[in-house]
Amino acid sequence: xxxxxxxxxxxxxxxxxxxxxxxxxxxxxxxxxxxxxxxxxxxxxxxxxxxxxxxxxxxxxxxxxxxxxxxxxxxxxxxxxxxxxxxxxxxxxxxxxxxxxxxxxxxxxxxxxxxxxxxxxxxxxxxxxxxxxxxxxxxxxxxxxxxxxxxxxxxxxxxxxxxxxxxxxxxxxxxxxxxxxxxxxxxxxxxxxxxxxxxxxxxxxxxxxxxxxxxxxxxxxxxxxxxxxxxxxxxxxxxxxxxxxxxxxxxxxxxxxxxxxxxxxxxxxxxxxxxxxxxxxxxxxxxxxxxxxxxxxxxxxxxxxxxxxxxxxxxxxxxxxxxxxxxxxxxxxxxxxxxxxxxxxxxxxxxxxxxxxxxxxxxxxxxxxxxxxxxxxxxxxxxxxxxxxxxxxxxxxxxxxxx
Length: 403
Description:
The protein is α/β, with parallel strands linked by helices. It has 2 domains: 10-214 and 334-402, Rossmann fold; 240-323, formyl-coa transferase, domain 3 (2-Layer Sandwich), CATH 3.30.1540.10. Helix content is 37%, strand content 16%. The protein has helices at residues 19-29, 63-66, 82-92, 106-109, 114-120, 146-152, 174-197, 207-214, 216-225, 257-266, 281-286, 292-300, 304-313, 324-328, 331-335, 377-381, 388-394, 397-402; strands at 10-14, 33-38, 52-54, 60-62, 72-76, 97-100, 125-130, 202-206, 240-245, 248-253, 318-320, 339-344, 348-353. A hairpin with a 2-residue loop joins strand 9 and strand 10 (248-253). The longest helix is centred in the middle third of the chain and has 24 residues, at 174-197.
């Protein structure tokens, strides 16, 4: 019987923006029950990010929120109030995992940090995501967004076409989303270890650490050669990049000389495999004019599909440079079931990629929509057995009613 691997795991998500929400959405895609804790006065700031879709009812759904919050429940808690903190503690007592990405120390000041919660709940796995980590180092406690971390980690320094041009930011959300995935990986390790020890762990996740680990090649090259890689062509490998065909671009890397001999044969220039100016990766990197005009001329006589097809037949991996419309219509992704078609009650069907989990006997990834702010207060918080008046204060209902 097929099932989702994280069924029965309850996650409390004290989260906002991207790194926490993306992590917990992937956990939800794997079957975990994710309870998103939000402020009563507007909730996660991404609820109002553009673009938005608005249904006939007038209700709007933010794409920036939708991308990171499917398949969750939403509760509102005013954590500035003692009633809100009491309800939060009671909620965490029912959970296996807490994920939070508030500024380091914020939950500790409120008395709801890991030390406070684990004292009564030693099995708790607590993942705290921050820009630079919770402790150690002069940057601990600094606030951070994605762009700051990409710059600090050296990713921005190597992004761009030339060292003569300013550095560029890579894809939006790269540091946030990569950190989210690393956080989920650590959560699963901690849950596995808990089956052997019976105790949870505090997971101190640093976006800076994560992206430095991802920035492997420049750091390896610096360790081995003393070089500081900047933007522009690689010193040891070529060709590598996006190359123009008659109808667009293909993406190609030739990582070794065996692969280059195949490329030289495919483009009808086998002599380039043995010419000293082009026989090695370093030689090609130093002498692009010795091979690039011939390769580009061959490509520009063919479509992207033809070039990729010829390379495939010759044993050279290459890919068409696709845009978002190409990807949304990709028959291969459809065949692999990489999209969910979410039926939102206000704005209708929205097609989105889900977490790329594929394993035997796994039930389909849920296609739940995003929760409306506080829509699960009664279902989730009402089951905690708290005093009704205190619960109303905890959720902000009393404040809202008297405002």
